[in-house]
Amino acid sequence: MNFQRTVKLETPMHKKVRNLQEFLKSYSGKIGLVSHINPDGDAVGSLLGLYLFLKKAGKRVTPYLAEKVPHYLDFLPDVDKIQSKLDATDIDLIILIDATEFSRTGFNAPQTTPIIRIDHHISGRTYSKYDVVIPGAPSTASILLKFARKYDETLISTDIKKCLYTGLLTDTVSFRHSNSFPWAFKDAYYLVSTNLDVTDIASLVYERKKIKTLQLLARVLSTIFIRDQVAIITIGKELLLEYNIDRSETEGFVSYPLSVDEAIVGVSIVEIEEDRWRTSLRGKNKVNLAKVAETFGGGGHFNAAGCTINGKLDEVIDSLIRTIKIHKV
Ligand code: 5GP
Ligand code: MN
Asked: Which ligand approaches the C-alpha of residue 103 most closely?
């Protein structure tokens, strides 16, 4: 008899998921779920997916986000249940989702409330023995799908699937960028084969832009430039004001500089206040962008990272390009 074929050895990843699942099954305290500022599809999808799942599992649970959910994600089920004020003394346990550390949530750090981190970023803090941090996961939603299937598959409602699929879809940039393709497509297959309407979700995420956003994009693209294989767009404060557009509406713009043939990195630089620039970096496997972002106090993944840089725009661009050169592989 072939031993290896009949006994499935548990991988460290499955062990982590099982540990968390066993712990939460017997947990009866009040749980608060939090995710990062500038919430994206994986942050909001994972937050609400886990919220709906734990609620179905009979837990006392509340989702929190310090910043407003962007328009393109406002279709997600129970999005109105998200609280914007967090009083940690009201909660027995915090689950930090899709973020490297608690400070990324924009909330005041809790004094004593324990934290469990569920995430797929390369770096970050360890908070407890129940943390599930899997950098090889295509999205945090993918980790949660694994968790939910292990916990009790029958509790995974269509609404929960909708949330988790949104996380997977957006974090893989519509299944175009991922270091973990088999896993990403396996999740997609699982969700699609249970009759989730993924065409409808894609339309809700990508096809509800305001005409003003596209007009702003046209203005921004007219000033795109490339230097040292880095294609850059910049958006000044006054432009957002002129078009009356929230910064979150510019979320997908960075895919345009990345789409330039000669570019190995695409950058979007948005002014948040005078001499303070929110920077999004996207790559083509040629530069470790997580390291670039970390240099400026930010973080992220190899091919998608972000940071906030202070200084005059010219200096910001110079130091960004210098740092990108250092982290070429
Ligand atoms: P985005 O460019 O969409 O804001 O972010 C891309 C990726 O980098 C996301 O996974 C996001 O969570 C991460 N990221 C963006 N900004 C920061 C930051 O300031 N700090 C850390 N640690 N991660 C960031
Ligand atoms: Mn993510």
From this structure: 1
Q: Give the domain extent around 268.
A: 211-326
Query: Band of the pLDDT at 309, cuts 50, 70, 90?
Result: very high
Ligand 1 contacts CB of residue 289 (under 6 A): no
What average pLDDT score do residues 97-103 get? 97
- How large is the average pLDDT for residues 5-13? 76
Say which CATH number the domain at 141 has. Answer: 3.90.1640.10
DSSP 29-77: SEEEEE--SS--HHHHHHHHHHHHHHHHTT-EEEEE-SSPPPGGGTTST
Closest ligand 1 atom number to CA of residue 38: 4
Q: Is the pLDDT assigned to residue 6 strictly greater than 70?
A: no
Same domain? For 23 and 142 the reply is yes
Domain boundary among 204, 228, 259: 204
Radius of gyration of the chain (CA): 20
Count of H-run helices and E-run strands, the chain: 12, 11
Q: Ligand 1 pocket, 160 CB below 6 A?
A: no
pLDDT at 308: 97
Are residue 117 and residue 249 in the same domain, yes or no? no
Q: What is the pLDDT of residue 124?
A: 92
Same domain, 239 and 255: yes
247-256 mean pLDDT: 92
Q: How many angstroms separate the CA atoms of 265 and 229, rounded?
A: 7
Residue at a domain's end among 204, 223, 246: 204
Residue type, 140: T
Is 60 within 8 Å of 42 (Cβ atoms)? Answer: no
Nearest atom (ligand 1) to Cα of 123: 22
